[in-house]
Amino acid sequence: MTKDVNPARTAGGGEDGRGTPVGRRVVLGMLAAGAAGVAAAPFLQSAYDNTLGAAAQQDPTGLSGLLPGGGGFRYYSVTGSVPEKNERTYRLTIDGLVRHRTSYRLADLRHLPQTRLVRDVQCVTGWRVPGTPFEGVRLAALLDAAGVRPEAKAVRFTCFDGAYSESLTLEQARRDDVLVALRMQDKPLTHAHGGPVRLYAAPMYFYKSAKWLSKITVTDHVQPGYWENRGYDIDAWVGRSNGRDDAPTT
């Protein structure tokens, strides 16, 4: 896999799709449908998000990832479908090199101190959504509560889609701008955007911000994530990795 992917030629992926070329008529038809949805914003914004998200879950080819989502986002998944989690069924587990294995419900996470960040979302494929608010619990606070062992060096994230994973060094994970996010754009995270809980690593390309987060495992070394195993840089600093030089100017 190359490090610079053109989303107009992809068919599937995490936050940055990669796959086989698709037919021109299919692409044009889907882009026309997407344009019609965009034209109805903001009145149909929520319905548009939900429709694209639902289409993505039923689309093993990943063609729905070619369409612009609400607010300029793209919808990608590396699996044909992702189960939905709710207040009753969602759990976030923290394990590995910790003194206290912990499991959080959504209500537990909401009752912890929340941090709100407003940053540009930057995908390595080139699209950007400026000034996007995310809100959630600092990852560092969850690690501190679990009691990280001295031999720990990194953190691995796995997702309830059953396929996606990511990693950060422990130093990166403890940054103030890395969240376990529950809200985006001042609304609860939708399923299409990786809800009910996702990682948000603000200073890195968006593929590091794993959607549908289910487990945080503290490890003694960095384990390359889904896209790193396919050619992306492990350290994904915006403008300083993946052969890109496109850091936001503001």
Structure in words:
This protein has 250 residues and is of the alpha+beta class. It has two domains: 7-72, no CATH class; 92-230, Sulfite Oxidase, Chain A, domain 2 (Alpha-Beta Complex). 18% of the residues lie in helices and 23% in strands. It contains five helices and ten strands. It has helices spanning 24-39, 45-57, 106-110, 139-146, 170-173; strands spanning 92-96, 102-104, 115-122, 128-138, 154-159, 165-169, 178-184, 187-188, 198-201, 213-219. The longest helix has 16 residues, at 24-39. Mean pLDDT is 78; it is low at 1-28 and 30-68.
**Strands across the major sheet, in which order?**
2-1-10-5-6
Return the domain count: 2
Kindly provide the radius of gyration, computed on alpha-carbon positions and rounded to a whole number of angstroms: 17 Å
Instruction: Give the biggest sheet.
Output: 5 strands, mixed
Order of helices and strands: HHEEHEEHEEHEEEE
Low-confidence stretches: 1-28, 30-68
- Give helix % range: 10-25%
Dominant shape: globular
- How much of the polypeptide forms β-strand, as a percent range? 15-25%
Structure summary, number of beta strands: 10
State the CATH class of the largest domain: Alpha Beta
Mean pLDDT: 78
Q: Please work out how many helical segments DSSP would assign.
A: 5
Class inferred from helices and paired strands: alpha+beta
Architecture of the largest domain, according to CATH? Alpha-Beta Complex
